[in-house]
Amino acid sequence: MESRNTSLSPFNGTAPDIIILLIGLPANGFIIWLTGWRLRCRGLSVFILSLASSDFLFLCVMVMQIMETLQGDNWVLGAFMCRLRHFLLDLSYHCSLFLLAALSVDRCLLVLLPLWYRCHRPLRLSTYICLGTWVAASLLSIKGFIFPDVILFEDGVLACYNDRGKYEWPLRLLEVLVEGFFPFVVMVTTHAVTLARTLRRHTRAPSQFYRIVAATLTVYVLLNLPFQITQLLFLVALENQELYSRLIPFLIYTGYLINLNTSINPYIYLFFGSNFCTGSSHLKTSSLASALTEDLGKSPGHTPEASFSA
Question: Which InterPro entries match (predicted)?
């Protein structure tokens, strides 16, 4: 079997992930409670609920990654948990990407076709989109249950390893172009069109939910673009072992940016959906609730029935 080397010590390798975990896990849990239980998925909050759920799941899988690193890269949880880890990691990552792409298209339609959006858009379309996104991401993540296994390397490390053999190149092509780069391009393109049309039109100030979406998409593009570029380079370097080895550190550090993105999303929702962005010094979750349950067919001053503050 092939040997493997690690360039990061266990502490140095897990310290950023532990910090990200402590910052993001409770924050995403709060957003899930707010949108799922307190607001009961009213209005457009179902998008935010799905995003927070996928981010929460991603961070939970990071716990297993941290455990593995602290054990000297030894996997002690068995073959089934190894496969489950890869499946859940793929599921959460792709679901976030697909949801943001769908949300970006939804915002673009609002700007390009405002009359149709307010008068003819199906009321439960957001729910159907989110359900379809989870189903599609689950189907594309099934390979995580097929190829990963626990392997003993020459240096004595028992690792959770994803050995796809002759299917490596076609599966990598699927992941990079279809599951990753294509929705990423859709998201960037529609987001750019939306911003350009909004800046060109002299209309009333954008709604709080629109600001949340715009900020979330912008941060996602900035933090995930390096990873997408690295993935494309990996696809080119599969036959060049030297270049492949040189790209591994870039994959590690750009991965930290993705981890960071899952943790800061809840703070984007809180900042742009509360009174902070309008100059208030207090966080009022009633303002956030109003933004997340916003119905674009109603007046900007409409507020949800649930009113509470913190």
Answer: GPCR_Rhodpsn (IPR000276), GPCR_Rhodpsn_7TM (IPR017452), MRGPCRFAMILY (IPR026234)
